[in-house]
């Protein structure tokens, strides 16, 4: 149990440059980092024409770029090693990650391997990275993961069917270049999934047991921005104001949770990605209302703030009713952006629940969940969401 008077710290090691058109600042942000680099991205971004813009900007600045565009959703150890191989062969000096969480997570770990050698498995866990990696620049093209400012990369070990975490202050990208204009081309399902991931970050950070008032304030503001903008970003993808608020929310929520970790939703969504290859944001979005409802008895103080941040009228309501309004507001938002309601709709099999539960319990996120959680609790939550 934490107390208002407890000591906390807040470190934000990345430089965040944010705004529509901010991509034009790329040459000055990378000046001095070297003349050769690799760009790590995914096939969708390669097709969207975003890389051409980046190549042109860097070419004008005298920097030679080599692309690696094979990053898949739930990226694997093999992908990190293949990208690292390209880094070595091209004798690059720094790495750019351009895309969603997958591309940036791979870029962050490549920067570690480039500086310290070894394999991804050497850095599994928290605090295993011995020092700074080579410089890494993260450019998000979705508004959700916030990987551009976090101390975590999540990489899938296909042999173990396990999403492992590399967590270290040394893997935060030196530069986070956030240009909402790059998120305009996101299709509706991706807008929904990534937006709900950002909302999950904000909510799990806000209600968990870690005391950090600066992080919690960022998380609450992120919820407000998402409550005002996710539906618009989803319904009218070309609305730059909505896209700007969503990207700001995503980055703020990530700056927050990277200090506090998350909760049961993320503990449970990672095994769903590893076993069923379900996109991270979708898995979170489906689980979020169920986990919130279960956590409610531990959150009667915090949920009314969430309800209010999401635009609900809570004045005059009893605390319990105000808390329930938060769960209902999340459920409605999820429905409005057409997130499926049950795990069975995502191809999850019921027989997998024991194994999913075992893997979820390995996550450090369970330890900070607001309501104390045992393995049978997680199994029951999977059953309810199934
Ligand atoms: Fe997430």
Characterize the structure shown:
There is one protein chain. By secondary structure, this protein is of the alpha/beta class. The chain has 2 domains: 15-183, Rossmann fold (3-Layer(aba) Sandwich), CATH 3.40.50.1970; 188-385, Dehydroquinate synthase-like - alpha domain (Dehydroquinate synthase-like, alpha domain), CATH 1.20.1090.10. The chain is 50% helix and 11% strand. It has 15 helices and 9 strands. Strands 1-9-6-4-2-3 form a 6-stranded parallel beta sheet, with helices on both faces. Strands 5-8-7 form a 3-stranded mixed beta sheet. Helix 6 packs parallel to helix 10 (280-295) and helix 9 (264-276) packs antiparallel against helix 10 (280-295). The longest helix is centred in the middle third of the chain and has 23 residues, at 213-235. The protein is globular. The mean pLDDT is 95. Bound molecules: fe (ii) ion. Fe (ii) ion binds at residues 197, 200-201, 266, 280, 284.
């Amino acid at each position: 149990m934490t107390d208002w008077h407890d000591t906390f710290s807040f470190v934000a090691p990345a430089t965040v440059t944010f705004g529509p058109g901010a991509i034009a600042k790329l040459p000055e942000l990378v000046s001095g980092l070297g003349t050769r680099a690799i760009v790590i991205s995914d096939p969708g971004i390669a097709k969207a024409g975003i890389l051409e813009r980046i190549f042109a900007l860097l070419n004008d600045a005298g920097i030679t770029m080599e692309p690696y565009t094979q990053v898949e959703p739930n990226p694997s150890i093999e992908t990190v090693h293949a990208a690292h191989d390209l880094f070595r062969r091209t004798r690059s000096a720094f790495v750019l990650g351009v895309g969603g969480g997958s591309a940036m997570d791979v870029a962050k770990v490549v920067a570690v391997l480039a500086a310290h050698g070894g394999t991804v498995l050497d850095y599994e866990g928290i605090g295993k990275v011995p020092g700074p990696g080579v410089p890494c620049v993260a450019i998000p093209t979705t508004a959700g993961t916030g990987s551009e400012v976090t101390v975590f990369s999540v990489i899938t070990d296909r042999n173990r069917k396990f999403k492992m975490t590399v967590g270290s202050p040394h893997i935060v990208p030196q530069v986070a270049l956030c240009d909402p204009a790059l998120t305009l081309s996101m299709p509706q399902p991706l807008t929904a999934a990534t937006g709900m991931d950002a909302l999950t970050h904000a909510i799990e950070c806000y209600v968990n047991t870690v005391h950090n008032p600066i992080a919690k304030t960022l998380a609450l503001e992120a919820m407000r921005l998402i409550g005002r903008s996710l539906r618009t970003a989803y319904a009218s993808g070309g609305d730059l104001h909505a896209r700007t608020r969503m990207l700001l929310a995503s980055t703020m929520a990530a700056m927050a949770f990277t200090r506090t970790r998350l909760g049961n939703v993320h503990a449970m969504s990672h095994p769903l990605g590893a076993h069923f290859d379900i996109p991270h944001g979708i898995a979170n979005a489906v689980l979020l209302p169920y986990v919130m409802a279960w956590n409610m008895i531990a959150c009667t103080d915090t949920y009314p703030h969430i309800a209010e941040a999401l635009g609900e009228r809570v004045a005059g309501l009893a605390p319990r009713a105000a808390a329930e309004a938060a769960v209902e507001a999340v459920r409605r938002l999820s429905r409005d952006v057409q997130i499926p309601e049950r795990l069975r709709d995502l191809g999850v099999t019921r027989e997998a629940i024991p194994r999913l539960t075992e893997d979820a319990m390995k996550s450090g996120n369970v330890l900070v969940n607001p309501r104390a959680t045992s393995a049978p609790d997680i199994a029951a939550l999977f059953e309810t969401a199934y």
